[in-house]
User: Fold these one by one.
Assistant:
Number 1:
Amino acid sequence: MNNIDFDAIDLTKEAPVTEPERQYYYIAKARKYVSEKAQEIGRNLTFCVTTFGCQMNARDSEKLVGVLELIGYKEEPDEEKADFVIYNTCTVRENANLRVYGRLGQLGAKKKKNPHMFIGLCGCMMQEPTVVEKIKKSYRFVDLIFGTHNIYKFAELIVTRFESERMVIDIWKDTDKIVEDLPSERKFSFKSGVNIMFGCNNFCSYCIVPYVRGRERSRNPKDIIREIEGLVADGVVEVMLLGQNVNSYGKNLEEPMTFAQLLQEIEKIEGLERIRFMTSHPKDLSDELIDVMAHSKKICKHLHLPVQSGSSRILQKMNRHYTKEHYLEVVRKIREAVPDISLTTDIIVGFPGETEEDFQDTLDIVRQVRYDSAFTFIYSKRTGTPAAAMEDQVPDDVVKDRFDRLLKEVQQISAEVCSVHQGTTQDVLVESVNDHDPSLMTGRMSNNLLVHFPGDESMIGKIVTVYLKEAKGFYYMGELCK
Ligand code: SAH
Ligand code: SF4
Ligand code: F3S
């Protein structure tokens, strides 16, 4: 992909109809427009991409950045100074939406002062027709709106905007298409997210993701392996395999393949040191996967296994397809097979109809599993989901009280669980210079915990052995082992 000579593409011809060639053509065309504009104003054009939401969106943003850099924009971390500001949005909870509207209002004022400025909106929020209506009406200054299914067309959409004076809107309801071999610019040189599937078919009753990300599609294993091999050749040692429910990977492929089988193939890639994945749905976590994890040398000792609630009654209303007992049994099996595994989770408080008794079940499962960490969320009503129409929405003050009690429990347990590794030595992937003290480096252990230790920048991207001197609750202070 990196070897394409965009200047050699003949722009007097029509755009090719096949992908990714069509996008290469539009990248070449956009380069021309960007360089003309840069000459006109006598400086480089700059961009700033802001990502809301999950790792999927973070990976999508890398694809946006890949295109922007290829067409000649330079990164500008300060949104206020950038010529092209993009919000890659999330709509999983109401407050994610509110943040976007708030910031968008401020951007409008900035645009008045910079006539070259483009504002682009994409991501999950744009898949909601009411959102697009609102932007068309109240935020007329936006230049470009597209959704989650056609992000691969980014270069083409930029060209459309350059060639018209109006707001460009392109949203698809769903797609069965996966376009390979598009550019992307990694945020980290040594680790990368890799999409293995898109969309979700689970329709948990509270969740909007299946509506905004479309039906589940798995990438071909050959394309995944080829991408990872390319990444490894480029210095990547750790990959994070991404999907809303990685455990159902491969079911709809022409030659079906399980997630566990895919992992075994990825394990064989020479030079790749670590494999992570996210997210695992408890209903589909197979014995085969547990077995592969137990025997793997590369799969990290960390499993994110969202429980959502400890009450079987609520789990049923959430359409999660497992009970409290089943979940605990999965946890028992995985701990038996991989004794030092770190478990993390997501929990929703205040789902419609949740009683104090249901909530006690959630506290109980938290106490039984003893998670290394848990993301706790207040239930947010998403229009169009079945739960939004359910009766007995729980009053705000009751939810807030439960949320506070849960958080306290989760934090206390997590501090206890995380400190058990004190005095051990661990393999650590060095990620960055410490934010507060430049003489320290920050690295990540297999179990996803961070450790800070004296070192220097040359270690970034390497796996080193570190002695864990002191547990500090959610992280460690350590010392490099010679
Ligand atoms: N596919 C992943 C989750 C993606 S969304 C999975 O099934 O585990 C990430 C988390 O957001 C979910 O695990 C859930 O805890 C939370 N979430 C989703 N919808 C929500 C809502 N309507 N209100 C509050 N939290 C929600
Ligand atoms: Fe949402 Fe459930 Fe799909 Fe996760 S599995 S994205 S919670 S519908
Ligand atoms: Fe948000 Fe979309 Fe991810 S709604 S959580 S960014 S899939």
Number 2:
Amino acid sequence: MCGIVAYIGGKPARELLLEGLKRLEYRGYDSAGIAVINGGLQLSKTAGRVRVLEDQLGQDDRFDGTIGLAHTRWATHGEPSDRNAHPHEDDPELGHGIAIVHNGIIENHAALKTYLMDNGHVFASDTDTEVLAHLIGHFYEGDLEASVRQALREVTGAYAIAVVCAQEPDVLVVARKGSPLMIGVGSDEYIVASDASAIVAHTNQAIELDDDTIARLTTDSFRTSTLENVTITPQMRELEVDLEQIELGSYPHYMLKEIHEQPEAIRRCLKGRVSARDGSVVLGGLNEFARELGRTRRVVFLGQGTALHAGMIASYLVEGLAKIPSRADFASEFRYRNAIIEDGTVVVAISQSGETADTHAALREASRKGAMTLGLVNVVGSTITRESDAGVYLRVGPEIGVASTKAFLGQVTASVLLATWLGRRRFLSPMEASSMLETLNTVPTLISRVLDQSDQIAEVVGKYVQRDNWLFLGRGVNYPVAMEGALKLKEISYIHAEGMPAAEMKHGPIALIDKGMPVVVVATRSSQYEKVLSNIEEVRSRGGHVIAVATEGDDSIRNICEDVFFVPDVPEVLQPLLTVVPLQILAYHAAVMRGHDVDKPRNLAKSVTVE
Ligand code: M6R
């Protein structure tokens, strides 16, 4: 949600900032803007994508400076428009030439705005960010860092910011609280960005700023301090992302690339963690807490969107494999629901980005109430990983497509590992675990088999792509898969889709079914297979067209369905790793056929860092 990039060094800032914005564009794409200090503050911004900004800038030599900042926006306060695009300036009447880019929300912006207006400030936009720009300008007395510090002390909310000032052309000030920001450290240059993707082309050394921290950067100096101005020494770390991982390569879309990366992603997630022979799972991140986790009495999974669907599957797995009571909850609901945390409760935050504000806030709340907290997270060093007691990295590599695919499979795989790890400390026998883990090791190859059906799936999608309402049904571990299938379809193709437990359909939603309505049913061989077949009949007798996801070899299912995608036969607990894949491919093709921008669906952004 909003991408920030800032640069100070010896190179032309404009090219570097635009390149960074393109890499960050998946974080938000409502509008884009850039500010460079070059004989004063030069600023250009526009509604629309980064390429519109690039065209607008052309070769304008006013932007030839070596210090600047840029932003790509996902609107929170104020519609997407030129005037609401970042960067925002302080009051031009004051003549400071201060510009700021911001990711987050200034919650007390209304009160601050009133105060500033009472002091003569005139605002040019509807944004909370402009309020912060004016506040910094209001306090400015020749020291940018000091005025930023003073302003941030007045602010409540979340922010990652970068600030420049025409009167101090050699200084870049950045700060964060609750929104991600990292500083890439090059030789006599710094590249600040919301995430590593805008940095790795220039350096692999970076500093992750802590909350409530300010950094003052010049080409040859660096100082980080708290809001109370106490100097701190941050940790430098090596970025694990390399350029190739974030390039599109020969694929037309990141989503398709990431769908096809799934076999390799799951291999990486499993590597060194599974010993099928003795039925054991090694999760290095949990070692330190093995004793405490051995006493787990309840596991609560928290997440949003796709990550929550993985959490729902995880709760089935923990109950099934570890025999520990478990449930999954929207992080956003858990946080405000006054949830009861009993002794022995472990709360697991699931998140690709590790930055989702709702999930982060819920994790904090759980920790405050005394739960032990774990993170199943993809992005190394992200906020959730740093704030949880322990965790398991997904290791699926960077996910750029807004629609989550390989991260979901990583989340489910990590959940299988966690559930088995917990189970082996309780009732799960080595033999049971061993046989399941043996199959788990083959899952990457099995996923490839499903991927091979992409053309056939496209053909089926072609028959139904004009239909505006779809249902997705599943039972047991495949019920969250149905939810995920519906989410994928609606978020990138804008088709209305609902996912639900197959049995729930007849309690109301069945009224939606009319002639030819596409109903996708996960109908693999499982403990509830017969029941699912009955649900299929219920759909058919109301004229619905059933597209089934079934087990290879189950040819008889063709007799009761219009279309079938087959997946290899695996134990029920592992089925989501295969059954979701045709649904991802289905959604992809539907979006392409409808002519949508698959990687940048309307109104969305990759990670949602506001509550
Ligand atoms: O980064 P997170 O996994 O915490 O993100 C949570 C959701 O915003 C995310 O899974 C979202 O639902 C997906 N992008 C949908 O495909």
Number 3:
Amino acid sequence: MYSEPRLRPAPLNAIAQAAGTTTPPALRIGMIGLGTVGMGTWTVLKRNQSLIAARAGRAVEIVAIAVRDRVRAAEKLGDLALQNVELSGDPHYVATHPDVDVLVEVAGGTGPARGWVQAALAAGKHVVTANKALLAVHGEDLAETAAAHGRQLAYEAAVAGSIPIIKTLREALAANRIDSVTGILNGTSNYILTRMRDAGLGFAQALAEAQQLGYAEADPSFDVDGIDAAHKLSLLAANAFGMAVDFDSVHIEGIRDLQRADIAAAAELGYAVKLLATARRQGAAVELRVHPALVPERHALAHVDGATNGVLVHGDASGPAFYSGAGAGAEPTASAVVADLIDLARLPASHQDRSVPTLGTRLHADDAAPAVLPISEVVTPQLLRVACDTGLCEASTVRALEKSGLQVLRRKWMHAEDAAPALVLLTAPVVDSLAANAVQRLQARNGVIVRRLRVHSLD
Ligand code: HSE
């Protein structure tokens, strides 16, 4: 049975007693999920119990958790914990429990999670979630439900782990017209790319390591195929540009097909390969795209390694500002979950609906929202790696590319130990469709294999 928690952090009691007042009621949390992020949230709330209570002005306590396997969950939490926390097999029961003030949804997925969040909001709970997939697909609906019930839907943990980037865009940079947001938003892919470059690991081995470290999604294709980064980008773009969350319009390419020789070719010309998520104004339109891209080695984004995330924001008043930190893992993500909980604990009882708009403020009527620029119209420099081993081939390649409208700025021969000789070329910025056509023609006419990577144009 559900039982009222008994633990109260000592400092708060002491402060209240000294002031002759009663202890403010704890903020009571019902949590769905006890995986990596759920366990991290539990651990941070326990370890930092006193300081969290002091900052929040009251205790923050988990009172119920919905889990798939209660025996396993009990083992993870320990006996003592279970005197104060009810474990349930029914997420809906936890989401709507009368003694729960806030639902923390850290189970993931878009199907059932949507129903739990809706039920919790309708039952008058605030919701904190780390579920970017849910918000990228149903964020608009859920934000409306939250507003209709005068409750908060908080999701700092959904984007870039420990980096407070939602708060940054929505609050700290609210004075700015944002021109671009460029991020390394998926820790797993970045970890894989880093290990492929530094340790010479193959893709599968690096992915297995990332899974072991708890970075990867339940379905790791979300990580390596760019979908997770696109979920996050659509949330950042909504907050940055005041547009609707538009996951379906994000152009997505992942890192699955990247070869070690691609990374080596980029390095030959002084670039690192990163899975970049870019949201950028282009006239009246915006670019929304996730794909592997070359970043100059001197640039801050090139030095974001391992599971670290990095986000570069250009505001018209702030200028460029760069944020980086752990983008995945138990406690870094829990850091953001618990920060949202502290914000909610601080809301006065009489103003539970007083907070910032869930997805930033819509700055355009829907029919005047910026159009998303198709990838075919995006302009970037290109790196081409051409399987060429003679001067003749080099000359005919450059001639063919220039005939197709590409301007070759640099070229270099590459003789990697484990790959055939290749000609590496850097072009001037060019419209994507033109570059794609030129490569197709070159392959068909000259019979050479060409690899193409976009180079990030630095703002
Ligand atoms: N799978 C995600 C990542 C977890 O690798 O970044 C954090 O959202």
